[in-house]
Amino acid sequence: MLRLRLFDDVISGFGDDCKVGPAELEAVLTPGGKGNNAFSMADDHGQDTPLSIEISVKPMIRRSGAFDVRRGLFSGKRSADVDLTASPIHAVKKAKDVTGITPKSNERLTNGIISAVETLEIGNDMIADGSSKYSLPTISGKHSDLTAVSPEVMADVIRGCFSDVIGDVTIVDCRYPYEFEGGHIRGAVNLYTKDEVNSLLQKPVAGDKRHVLIFHCEFSSERGPKMYRFLRAQDRMLNSDRYPRLNFPEVYLLHGGYKAFFNKYRDLCDPISYTPMLHENHAADLRHFRVKSKSWTGEDGNQKTSRRHRSRLCRHLSL
Hints:
The chain has helices at residues 2-14, 22-29, 65-74, 88-99, 104-122, 151-158, 177-181, 194-199, 223-238, 257-264, 283-293, 307-317; strands at 40-42, 48-50, 148-149, 168-173, 184-185, 189-190, 211-216, 251-254, 269-270. It is an alpha/beta fold.
């Protein structure tokens, strides 16, 4: 229909004097048509030049199957070339057969990534590297993207109830120093800047020993979750060539923060007190540390913490 419409437009352009009908013009412009010889134009050399021109069509370049498989796995859309009844590993092998590239190292890496993605998609009970399930009972907190534990579970962790499944625990208190010094969970370390949190990743990974992190702030509504997400992003970047490996795959957020924990387990706080962030006696400290917490030196790793906080951090990380 589109071609006939074009023919009509061409004929109408010649005006009423045109003696060529639509059918004849179509026959002329169609390659191999019967009108190719009937309508010709003599050039300056006396040779006939057909009005129809045969245009060679280049074959479409097919994308590699490996790209289609990878796109189907990670973009949420499955390639039409992938057999839906086959396993992802078979799909990868099929794609490699198409391209003719079958290095065992690449196949092993691809299969490992596929397996990790499938494991992590099964449910939210797996830690971030897909190696095992969470050690601690979790609850649904205010932040759906973060794994949370209750104050009751935190108390059991401090009392050593999970020492048979957890090798080491670092309780990361993201409040400002005057809040921390005014009362904190027993054994917690005060890391309130991105530089300090990033320093956790500089500690060598202790083999198969499971090291759990539990973040919190006053209410675990802003500062704690922000540092949790920051550490996970830095950890992913550090291990980008070994996905889904992480230095700290098991991280939690204390639901309700220090306030909720202090209200139930004051005996597990040191000292037994609670200094709010908006305490009237610390207005100047709040302004100072709020600005300081927003500084981020990035790659150079120059931490701007006080000597006392650095020494406390080093002592805790050396345990």
